[in-house]
UniProtKB/TrEMBL annotation:
Keywords: Cell membrane, Membrane, Transmembrane, Transmembrane helix, Transport. SUPFAM superfamilies: ABC transporter involved in vitamin B12 uptake, BtuC. The chain crosses the membrane at residues 88-109, 115-134, 146-167, 194-214, 235-256, 276-294, 306-323. This is Iron complex transport system permease protein. Its main location: membrane. Belongs to the binding-protein-dependent transport system permease family. FecCD subfamily. Pfam families: FecCD (PF01032). One of its GO terms (cellular component) is plasma membrane. GO terms for molecular function: transmembrane transporter activity. It is found in: Cell membrane.
Amino acid sequence: MGRRSFGLLFLLVVLVAVCLASIAIGSKEIPLSGVWHGLFTPTGVEDDVVVRELRVPRTLLGIAVGIALGVGGALMQGHTRNPLADPGILGVTQGAALAVVLSIFLLGVNSLVGYIWFAFAGAMLASVLVFLLGSAGRGGPSPVTLALAGAAVSALMNGLVSAIVLLDQQSLDAFRFWQVGAIAGRDLTVLTQVLPFLLAGLLIAAFNAPGLNAMSLGEDVAKSLGVNVSRTRSLGIFAITLLVGGAVAACGPIGFLGLVVPHVARAFTGPDYRWILPYSALLGAILILFADIAGRVVARPSEVEVGVMLALIGAPFFIFLVRRKRLVKI
């Protein structure tokens, strides 16, 4: 077994261990016997409800969102050739935020399940707008034009969101709850609604990896190898939109994960995206669950949301990577 294959197997074992910890550890202390009882022989007591209806859906959603954001971040850094790029650079997060605020302000939507489809539609529309703006001109979409278009669209949508929440207190209160980024309080309905989009995004990402490897050598080299650069980039952007749009719709914006995880993966795998993507997927799931567990423990009996914990964990870790000069060139 090669080193990279062994690394994947090791990450799978770690992910299983973190999943078990996520189900067993929480703001409410439940003995291991109670966790086992709740999973396999429930009788409807309080501990059974906590395990089956709160912790298990939360863990499954964390796995799905972590995988989506990890792979989305790796794709984004590859297609923009920007080591500081994260999935929000295409305006996906800002588009989702604007759609959520408009759904509250104009339609009175006030439930997480109701936010999902508006957030996903906003993410899709924002990424399409960025892609169209970045594709304008004879050269078609390029890393620079996409980044500039994403920055412009993101700034516009952030301004609109700020204007709306300042005008309406209800929109501000609901938006603050969504904006913090959390996997708590979501049941399996939320996961089942976004799961088809996440699976489609992962499938497209897998097909996108070989072309992305060729493009990392330079677009001219990729074209000489027979790669259709425009089609490869379009597929990559579509995969990012599905993955990040679905994750943001379900949990709100969760920062740092899509930025940090690809760098860690690349340090172990090298520049081959056929390995970077699965490593990023597993590392993303592990990191989000670890942050979620930490958030339940540090503020007992209350909790710190996973978006806040990832910022507290991710920022110092990323600074450490930069200072150690372990960021692998893209």
